[in-house]
Amino acid sequence: MRDRLLAAEKVTAIDWRDGALYLLDQRALPFEQRWLAYTDAVGVAEAIRTMVVRGAPAIGISAAYGLVLALRQRLADGDDWEMALEEDFELLGEARPTAVNLFWALNRMRERLLRIKAGDDVLAIMLAEAEAIHESDREANLTMAQLGAELIRRHQGSEQAILTHCNAGALATGGFGTALGVIRAAYLEGMVERVYVAETRPWLQGSRLTAWELAGEGVPVTIGVDSAAAHLMKTKGITWVIVGADRITANGDVVSKIGTYQLAVNAMHHGVRFMVVAPSSSIDLNLASGEEVMLEERDVSELLEVGGERVGAGVEAFNPVFDVTPADLIDVIVTEKGIVERPDAAKMAQLMCRKRLH
Ligand code: MRU
């Protein structure tokens, strides 16, 4: 299975080459495949903030490379580079608030930095650490894809109609995706009849990114408006909702793209199974529940402008871009350390003590 998955891999969004970070500009997709080059941390932080790169694991990987770029600059500037680098940690850490992978990756870079000894080639070591973060996310995708596909086989077998939301694919990760990794694996195993993709207002990650990734591989895709979810579940034989996560708290609550929560409520009502796929770098045991997560709100112009024209004069808009799905609406969380069915705090803590499966 692993080899078939690797052979099917088509899209990458993050590339480190010739001392620069290249990001596939996700704002231009699917109309144009435009790569942008970054040579400093300021640029990388801006790329994360403005969603050139997006998706929890991809943000973390980009921040790790951003720190390498910062380090190179600080070393060239001379003197107290360690102190100066703190500003770069801060800058990158402030780029987006919700996906814990960003802070996880920066913490891992900091831990490696603290183990540097006199005489070490600090730049080479820190680049190797960023590359290891990138590679381990790719491996995690492969493991999760196989575990998730196995669950689909065990619980429902062939001819599945799957509903997904936002983009949790190759564009959002260092490999071929979390939720989309599972969907891809299940498709390769002949278990998927059709994938329904919620368009994901207001950024349209579903219709612009997920549908593009899947259609490029010949997977049958149908796009629906976000508000069609309940109707789709009732009329199209949806068997699974499969989504990614930006943060999973200690009790198993899942923070993901706005609209995920209503999918879980609808799934429970219609007897549709609900799977969350995320690497352990998305799990945050420091927060007891989703209530403690700071959820990003983006500019209201995303809602108050249509085709460049202002609508709703005299009204306000509310534009949270993530929501919290309570653990008790989730059938299973799939990670590279294993799966957790009907998540709760004890099961999540146990999972985090396990080793990765690859
Ligand atoms: O605002 P975005 O596009 O960065 O949001 C991304 C998501 O919500 C994804 O569902 C998430 O990161 C899943 S992880 C692959």
TrEMBL record:
Catalytic residue list: D246 (proton donor)
Record-listed substrate binding positions: R54, G55, A56, R96, Q205, S256, K257
The entry's keywords: Amino-acid biosynthesis, Isomerase, Methionine biosynthesis
Keyword Transport: no
Catalytic reaction(s) noted: 5-deoxy-alpha-D-ribose 1-phosphate = 5-deoxy-D-ribulose 1-phosphate; 5-(methylsulfanyl)-alpha-D-ribose 1-phosphate = 5-(methylsulfanyl)-D-ribulose 1-phosphate
The UniProt record lists the keyword Glycosyltransferase: no
GO function term, MF aspect, one: S-methyl-5-thioribose-1-phosphate isomerase activity
The protein's Enzyme Commission number: 5.3.1.23
Pathway(s) per entry: Amino-acid biosynthesis; L-methionine biosynthesis via salvage pathway; L-methionine from S-methyl-5-thio-alpha-D-ribose 1-phosphate: step 1/6
Residues marked Transition state stabilizer (site): C166
GO BP annotations, alphabetical order: L-methionine salvage from methylthioadenosine
Enzyme class: isomerase
Domain of life according to the entry: Bacteria
Pfam family, one: IF-2B
Family: Belongs to the EIF-2B alpha/beta/delta subunits family. MtnA subfamily.
Function of the molecule: Catalyzes the interconversion of methylthioribose-1-phosphate (MTR-1-P) into methylthioribulose-1-phosphate (MTRu-1-P). Also catalyzes the interconversion of 5-deoxyribose 1-phosphate and 5-deoxyribulose 1-phosphate. Part of a bifunctional DHAP-shunt salvage pathway for SAM by-products.
Entry-linked NCBIfam families: eIF-2B_rel, PRK05720.1, salvage_mtnA
HAMAP family, per the entry: Salvage_MtnA (MF_01678)
Protein name: Methylthioribose-1-phosphate isomerase
Annotated organism of origin: Pseudomonas putida
